[in-house]
Amino acid sequence: MRHPKIIIASISLAAAAAIGGGVTAAAATTSHASSKPAAVQSAATVRTAQATVGGKTETILVNSQGLPLYYYQSDTAAKSVVTGGLAALWPPLTSASPADTGLPGKLTAVTDIHGDQVAYDGHLLYTFADDQAGQVTGQGVQGFFVATPGLTAITGSPAPPAPAPPSGNPYGY
Question: How large is the average pLDDT for residues 4-13?
């Protein structure tokens, strides 16, 4: 298997949630939280680098240590939903004053549950506990995807779908 630690951690989280134990206890049992440097920095710098993603060389965003940066599909531009054990595997990149080195998009700090989390064009950024500098192993894992300079900007929560007009049929079709 590609990511047995993630699968085991996910199963542990699900079991803890099912018995009402919460995700914090499961996060304490993973070694990722203490074995890797935290993504917290006083002045995070985001830059681009070349990396192999899915067998193809791409330009991706990395932090000042060269770790690939990811975004989470379920986040909005203003709110992270990554907490507990998930945040232990996917540490948020935080900084009150993020800096970039010539990125085409906008780098900002969003105040959320993680403090001042760094966002690129509205996408909150994370590292992956199993990655090393120049190595991308989290692409597509648990809804996280590698951040690239060409990410489409998001500005907020997606608009709710428009209600369907009444059809006149009592069965709704």
Answer: 47
Of 71, 95, 56, 98, the closest CA to residue 153 belongs to 71
Q: 99-100 and 45-53 as β-strands: parallel, antiparallel, unpaired?
A: parallel
* Full-model pTM: 0.68
Beta-carbon contacts of residue 47 (< 8 Å; ≥ 6 apart): 61, 62, 64, 100, 101, 102, 103
Residue the block writes with tokens 């939280």: 33
**CA nearest neighbour of 46 among 105, 132, 88:** 105
Give Cβ neighbours of residue 57 (< 8 Å, ≥ 6 apart).
Answer: 50, 51
List of residues 6+ apart from 33 with CB closer than 8 A: 27, 88, 129
Residue 60, CA distances (Å) to 18, 25, 44, 121 in order: 37, 33, 16, 14
The structure tokens listed for 36 are 């890797």
Counting every residue, how long is the chain? 173
Phi (first) and psi of residue 159, to 5 degrees: -70, 140
